[in-house]
């Protein structure tokens, strides 16, 4: 999978009209992709185990996208095989009064991964240049400074040993309509439907502009964004899995070696200790 095609270059101008949400990069249909995804899932399981055992590195995966873009689906499918011990999801909702009384990165920093851990952000500090910008929750002068602050914050994380991968799940407005209708028309999905999503949908152009801006300003050499075509769920999953597996493989991790010869312990156990 040639995922580099979807990586945003630092300062690259992004016009989302030129990024097809239903692009599948030559993959035809889901069948072959499903088999490939199963292989990647198994590989990710193995690599995450190694990450945990080695206990040296930290991995942060940021998921952003409009309502219904598939953030929950990615968490369910891409991370299907991983060991819950060592993997954690942090979901960022409308900030609580306590969160709001601090700077916007306070709640974020406290959820970043520890050594050996992989953390998935379901929404993130990027809401502070998205929802906050679109709804005018702070003055322009405040959110405009945040791009540089976010780049500096992520740089700190990376310099201290965290790998940061950011995925923008790019769906079309038509696909969102279908998915919202599905939520309304399927009783098992009613819990996912929020009438407020229709209000947010009206702000599609404003959100699009805010996304284009943040993709342009915060895709860095140390913490790149990937624009993930997300109308086709199978392609979305395949692309994200590929990036994760490739990144973890590049760590060239090893199971920790024992610091001493362990055979005397086996001998003692066998002798009845
Ligand atoms: P959901 O992910 O569908 O449960 O919705 C969470 C909601 O919280 C979304 O509408 C986000 O835009 C909103 N949200 C998350 N973070 C912030 C933030 N920092 N400021 C304002 N709204 C936020
Ligand atoms: Mg929602």
Properties at a glance:
alpha/beta, Rossmann fold, 12 helices, 5 strands, binds adenosine monophosphate
Describe the structure in your own words.
By secondary structure, the chain is an alpha/beta fold. It has one domain (4-254): 3-Layer(aba) Sandwich (Rossmann fold), CATH 3.40.50. Helix content is 45%, strand content 12%. The chain has helices spanning 31-54, 71-78, 97-100, 106-109, 131-134, 140-143, 146-159, 173-185, 196-202, 204-218, 233-250, 263-270; strands at residues 58-65, 87-91, 118-122, 162-170, 225-229. A five-stranded parallel sheet has the order 2-3-1-4-5, sandwiched between helices. Helix 1 packs parallel to helix 11 (233-250) and helix 2 (71-78) packs across helix 11. The longest helix is centred in the first third of the chain and has 24 residues, at 31-54. The termini are far apart. Residues 67, 194, 197 line the site of magnesium ion.
Short description:
The chain has helices at 31-54, 71-78, 97-100, 106-109, 131-134, 140-143, 146-159, 173-185, 196-202, 204-218, 233-250, 263-270, and strands at 58-65, 87-91, 118-122, 162-170, 225-229.
The termini sit apart by 53 Å
| Poorly predicted runs | none
CATH class category: Alpha Beta
Average pLDDT works out at 97
Number of helices: 12
Please give the number of β-strands.
Answer: 5
